[in-house]
Design goal:
Number of strands: 11
Structural class: alpha/beta
Number of domains: 2
Shape: globular
Largest sheet: 6 strands, parallel
CATH class of the largest domain: Alpha Beta
Radius of gyration: 23 Å
Number of helices: 10
Distance between the termini: 45 Å
Order of helices and strands: EHEHEHEEHEHEHEHEHHEHE
CATH superfamily of the largest domain: tm_1862 like domain
Strand order of the largest sheet: 4-7-8-9-10-11
């Protein structure tokens, strides 16, 4: 066995730890991560049952996955990453061609799936290297759109602005419309202007929430002061991008720890004044919206899917 992640609940602590201990004895030195919310006071009990186990007290379990996978190690210099070979895998009818400038993210949002695959270290290529691939791929395949797959485009603003200026200077044959995904506070006026000049037509914006509670609880921001600045950044980027004619696709999340029904409605209303938000429902273990009664799925009316009626 290559390793294991065991979720432990404070309510069934001893039962869960007994199971973890049995599994630990079968791992024969392979890593184990014990994860669960509210386990901080039980460190000694965990250590006695599973000595040497790694601990993750986050709500999602992503931290545990990162520990187990050991992602984040740089295997090869970023500029030596190979170009994608679309000659052997032709583009679909949408003809959207992905390109990376950087991978990984240094921020601590505990719901993020990107870092499971790419780690919490930001690895960025040189602007010249990414620009060369951008121009080559556009020239070869004439995509309708380039999709930058960086989870946080612009995390290295100096390199990113150099790249955008380089794209702006390319010949018509080497250019294509493109889209990016980023955090609101990274899309300042200079970055948005550069995106527009270079041909960016769509900005996927990870808003997630505008409530201080869930923003802090999930590690999106550090404290209420930073949460206030975050809200200001969201309002500004939505307004400026709309003025520049860049289509914005804001993403918001429901069901985050500390969220309230009223706060989620305010977030969707504010974001929706500029662009229709893409809402993602999340399921955090043991977390429900404040003021919302617990789910009684065993008592709920069983309803058949629409197609079976």
């Amino acid at each position: 066995m290559g390793g294991a992640i065991v979720h432990v609940s404070p309510r069934t602590l001893l039962e869960d730890l007994d199971f973890a201990h049995k599994l630990w004895s079968e791992l024969e030195g392979a890593p184990m991560v014990v994860t669960g919310v509210g386990l901080e006071p039980h460190r000694e009990a965990i250590a006695s049952h599973c000595p040497g186990a790694l601990l993750d007290f986050g709500a999602t379990g992503y931290g545990a996955a990162l520990m187990l996978l050991g992602v984040g190690e740089v295997v090869v210099e970023a500029d030596l990453w190979p170009d994608a070979c679309w000659e052997t895998l032709p583009l679909a009818r949408s003809r959207r061609l992905p390109v990376y400038h950087g991978r990984g993210c240094v921020h601590g949002c505990d719901y993020c799936p990107y870092v499971v695959g790419t780690g919490r270290e930001h690895i960025v290529r040189s602007s010249e290297r990414t620009l060369r691939e951008f121009a080559d791929q556009v020239g070869k395949h004439r995509p309708k759109r380039i999709v930058f797959r960086d989870p946080v485009f612009g995390l290295d603003p100096v390199s990113t602005l150099e790249l955008l200026r380089g794209i702006t200077a390319l010949s018509k044959r080497e250019r294509a419309a493109f889209e990016v995904e980023t955090r609101p506070e990274l899309a300042d006026d200079e970055m948005l202007d550069a995106l527009k000049e270079a041909g960016c037509v769509e900005l996927k914006l990870g808003v997630e929430s505008l409530e201080p509670g869930p923003l802090i609880a999930t590690g999106r921001v550090a404290d209420e002061v930073e949460a206030d600045r975050y809200v200001e950044a969201v309002e500004k980027v939505l307004r400026v991008a709309d003025r520049l004619g860049i289509n914005v696709r804001p993403f918001v999340m429901t069901g985050l720890p500390g969220a309230t029904r009223e706060g989620e409605e305010r977030t969707e209303k504010m974001v929706g004044a500029v662009a229709a938000p893409i809402v993602k429902a999340t399921v955090y273990p043991g977390v429900g919206l404040e003021g919302t009664p617990p789910d009684r799925s065993d008592q709920a009316e069983q309803r058949e899917p629409e197609g079976r009626r």
